Amino acid sequence: MRRIKTMVWQVTVMAVVVTAVCGCQRVALDCDYTIVPYVQMFSGGPGNTPSDLTAYAYYGTDEDFRVPSTFDSVVMGEVWSLKKNEPVLCNVQEMQNADGNIVLPLHATDALIVVCAPAYEVFAWKYATITENLWELRIPMWLRLWRGSNYKESWQFVFPPKVELSE
Fold it and tell me: Does residue 27 come out as left (phi exceeding 0), alpha (psi in the -120 to 50 range) or beta?
């Protein structure tokens, strides 16, 4: 009888240890996606911190969304949902903090990130994939105004055409 009690006790202890080690791992998808923006007015010029930027995050992949070509849609935080076949609003919206950075608290592995710069009438976008248990990610964004037209680096920059109203 004593031997059975000892075996039960050992099995119980082993089950607790195995559960603690293997079964209780928490996988976190929460990540502070920090955008560090710079604006460069001319080629070779210094990178200054722009102001009045807004960033939007949409949870999904490039198969879920199409970035609009109109600046007004971007300013409103709207992109086109390919699945719903209609415009959708963002999951997360953040403005610049006191340091000039934009911190987007993301809660998904895939996201479309759109940054709007109304003062320069330009926006940038990229798809981001966040790995599990990544608490913070800092991404630079260089807005090179001297280029004056659409270009792609690690971000896709869009200078929408100016709409002229006829009288």
Answer: beta
The reply to whether 10 falls in a domain is no
Structural domain span for residue 36 = 28-158
Task: State the CATH number of the domain containing residue 150.
Answer: 2.60.40
pLDDT band, very low/low/confident/very high, at 20 (cuts 50, 70, 90): very low
Identify whether 95 is part of a domain: yes
Task: Give the pTM.
Answer: 0.78
- C-alpha 55/C-alpha 32 separation (Å) is 13
Nearest CA to 115 out of 90, 134, 98 is that of 90
- Give strand pairing partners of 65: 81
pLDDT band at 21 (very low <50, low <70, confident <90, very high): very low
Task: Give the span between the Cα atoms of 33 and 115, in whole angstroms.
Answer: 12
Q: Which of 109, 69, 99, 101 is nearest to 87 (CA)?
A: 69
pLDDT, tens only, 62-119: 899 998 778 889 999 999 999 999 999 999 999 999 999 999 999 988 999 999 999 9
